[in-house]
Queue: 2 jobs
Job 1
Amino acid sequence: MGRHIVAIDDSEIAREMVKATLADFGFDRVTTYPGPMEALSAFQSGEPPPDLILLDIMMPEMDGIELCARLRMLAGWTDVPIVMLTSRSDKQALSRAFMAGANDYVSKPFDRVELQARITSLLRLRSEMDRRRAAVAEWRPAARGAETADTAPPAGTLLGKAGLLRALEALTPAALPELGLMALRLDCLASDHADFTPAERRACIEVFGRTLGRWPMPAGDLLALWEDDIFLVASTVQDGASLARQAQEIVSDLPDSLKAARIWHTHEPSVSAGLALPGSFPSLSAGLGNVLQALDTAVHQGGGRLGGADMPDQQKRTH
């Protein structure tokens, strides 16, 4: 059975165009809805999640951003890829759309090649997530006599690096000073002496990501697997003190939650964090460079640390 794609747009012409275009791409299981209320009603009544959603932003009764946020709250819908369809006039809403849980966007009138590339990329990502979920569920480190208490992939909306970058790049210049960044890493995975197999290393990352996904974070914060074992949190709703406090709590308290998963061998799970506080960097690239450098410094100073600009010395060491 082919991939199931849902398209939601209040324009009948737009729906027919999307359906015809997807048919040209080889997708013959396409369901369309004329508005968010009809779609939400169907989904809340038990309609199984599709493989991908194309969602217009500007619609009556409820805009696509609110619908996106509501879909993310439905059980089983947290990792369904959502592509926002935007016109030039509503591009300013993209940052809100990403904060609501959107994965990507395509401008209208859309370019067929771009649309196909976005859909293909997200479906491939969805397949990879499903594959990892199945692989992790089957993994049992029997040779070491260990059992994992929780090795499912991260809960909630976890962006990839490309998705987070597109979300950040959609921020207006006026919003950049409000952006704060936090980078997080398991210290044992950064060690040159860690004796994890590749499968065990992936399981550690999955447990870390899932635990982070469950950690209380303000609505609007984005969590992404940045690269390999580094997770990145981006926030435009927290000030510097709030973001630093959250990072401090994660570094201090999250390792206790990780201990339930018995996959650490002789390593005591600890977390290091780096911060780039709102207003402390002149550009997005500078902020990303600063937060990763702060994390690297914290890890190499012994781990279990919080590093970043303007952090008091007594807060930097937590253990």
Job 2
Amino acid sequence: MDLLELADKLFTGELPIEAHHPFASSGQMAEVQPGLAFVDAFANSAAVDTADGLVIVDTSGVFHAKSVHDTIRTWSSRPLHTAVFTHGHIDHVFGVDLYEEDARTNGWPAPRVIAHTAIAERFERYRMTAGYNAVINQRQFKAPGLRWPTEYRMPDETYSDTLSLTVGGETFELYHDRGETDDATWVWSPARRTVFAGDMFIWASPNCGNPQKAQRYARDWAIAFRKMAALEPEVLLPGHGLPILGAARVQRALTEGAELLESLVEQTLALMNEGARLDDIVQTVRAPAHLLERPYLHAVYDEPEFVVRNLWRLYGGWYDGDPSHLKPAPAGALAREIADLAGGPSRLAARALEVAAAGDLRLAGHLAELAAQAAPDDAGVHAARAEVFGVRAGAEASTMSKGIFSWAAHESTGKAKEPA
């Protein structure tokens, strides 16, 4: 089945989204229109073949850039004229060096790279926090050996709000809106009626709450969706997942993405304005169920619950309204006190297993973690913690939750008692 047929079946629900997870990478290419190629990778890359050379929106990531380059080269041997980075995430901004080598080999002019001006600050932050980013991405993607890069291809040109380019007679309009990142760009081709959305659209509930990453911007993201929809595009090329073709389908996907984020923003701000605590808000706010049922809005990567927490962080700071959290005791001291009251860490661990068996995995997670904090060297306690978080990981749908819970289970597995 080719990519466009697969995309059609996913959109209609004929195939479940599990048939092609948006963060899968088939490496396949589809020619969406004459002169417009789309490569399904982690992350996607789209190329337009103009009279003056290729315009490529995102050159893919540190692990997939070579295969993407090689795939595009089976379609066109023309030089890369311009690469646009939709943002600075490492799955989007590698591989320009391969096209630069093509240029040196063939005597072509060097390609240029264009991105939003904030990408430079992102790259600098990545250099300063390379160790942290390695750890959190190892955890998120269950990739223990992942190393975070510290060298980046800086753009040759940047812009702040909008930028119009003409390459080989084709016009490309670049727009900046904050969404998953503060350096985001989406690209509009008026002649092709095509939006190159980058990670503004990922065939999943918007990645606007990731618990281990920097601030995201739900309200701005919804506004961007509305701007895209107002252009009446006929093709939507996402940063992850497959193309959406047809004006009605594209309009529906963009509009419903906006509605999902707008609902979360409105509910969260209403409760914040009433003085509610963060915990009360998290337990109260719910995304519209009919939107989460859409094939392109399933919570298979991020989750609306995490978006709520990110909205609190954006508009309310880090204090969650619980005074005991303002200047808390060390976590281990609190855990030991609770364990003593419960009859010891082993009793807490045993209760965690009982609660998990009864189906309350959230409460079981608290108890298992408290037991491990109270007795960090107790193999039996860690065996219980590994079991609880293994069950939690198996019960989750999103990459974020699965990654964190699986990592916790793995941590404790290594400390647990070996079987007799």
